[in-house]
Amino acid sequence: MMAIGMTLNIVGHGVPDLPNWLRHLESLHPKTIDLGLDRVVEVKQRLNLNPPFPIITVAGTNGKGSTCAMLEAILLAAGYRIGLYTSPHLLRYNERVRINGFEASDEALCEAFAAVEQARGEVSLTYFEFGTLAAVWLFVRAGLSAVILEVGLGGRLDAVNAFDADCAVLTSVDFDHMDYLGDSRLAIGYEKAGIFRAGKPAVCGEFDVPYSVLAHAEKIGADLRRIGSDFGYDGLGACRTYGDRSENSAGRGQILPVLQVNSRSIGQKSGEIWTAQVDSQPIHHESDRLLKPNQWRFTSVDGLRLSLPYPAMRGTYQLGNASTCLAALEQLGARLPVSHDDIRRGLLAAVVPGRFQVLPGRPQRIFDVAHNPHAARALAENLRAMPPTGKTFAVFAMLRDKDIAGVVRAMKEQVDRWLVAGIGQPRGASAEEMLRILEQEGLAQRAEAFPSVAEAYRHACAKAVEDDKILIFGSFYTVAEAMTLADSQVE
Question: Looking at domain 357-490, what is its CATH homologous superfamily?
Fold first, then answer.
């Protein structure tokens, strides 16, 4: 009762105390992660949370944050009122809950937390479960057109999955959180496909789709659309066109104009750029000749989107995320129509801090939360695509329950000097643990240890010259600590 009395007192006097609330949330459940829907569903029912708006649920090993940001930006550009729930945050908890493009205020979050606290009674909720219910409580009261919910971990048993998705999006399937999701892509794919709903559209942005995802979609009757089969993208130097499974490496300056357009009627849309229906034959579209290096096109069984700008978010993999986003919006077109101009403006506006984020100035400072081998391979590919200059100093720190060695192996050819540090969290690996793994990978001569990310970052800034790169990666905690320091340097 003391906790409820305390929270009601805070709200009643109009004095938000978000830090106290967050400490309270951390103390409620004995485990940080305790997958299961029973607790969330019970409190959801007590709160009478029945969202009246369409829900887009986004799961995946990597790419969730970028895809959510593009969905939000495009729908906002179209004039809709949008709610977005993501995790984890970098600098402020408020980042997790966005309403119509703005972070929720401390006051709003405290009011939502108080409502969940009063409704839960003796039900023990985890930090993430509590936060998910509070976010949806705010969304229901905000008069929104649609809401985007990012899965925290897995999908099937994640708190977000207590709310039915009108469109489920699966961005990628790879190895991470294996203690909870299983040690195979089949097992992990099954857990992530748990967000699919019978008779509802599901969009998968993974080219190498595990059979478990396909089998689950078929079993429950979800309308699954797959990249490489039902939709894709192509542009100069990057081609992932549906139907032919083609794949160009970045930088070759080629287009493979092989588009299989099926028998669905497409027709010409007024004011937008689409193709007319053709028979099921490969076509060479006039746009092949006109496609410019800074443009790409989205192709699907329902038509084409031509002359699209590259997303503002850097990275060769962002076209895959953008295509997955457009495929989801295509499936929701009857309820949430968007124009070609909405898409253009949204792609150019969407930004997610800490995803291959390059700060202005010299030496270049690159922040990336890559914390598993799949994300590290994408980061390495992005670094290879950059003009070769100087040395690359890596400020590197990870959680010990991640595949640290796998990340190192993915990045070893891109890093000249490893500056490893400890993370001041219970799950954080120490600098000594990080150093041992680098030694095992034969990188001892190129590595040195620091007690904190801040000290490693300061050392990198002192040693790097104008043509060098400073890369900060390995965890949200790593990026957040260095980014805070970078912000203070600007001030």
Answer: Mur ligase, C-terminal domain (3.90.190.20)
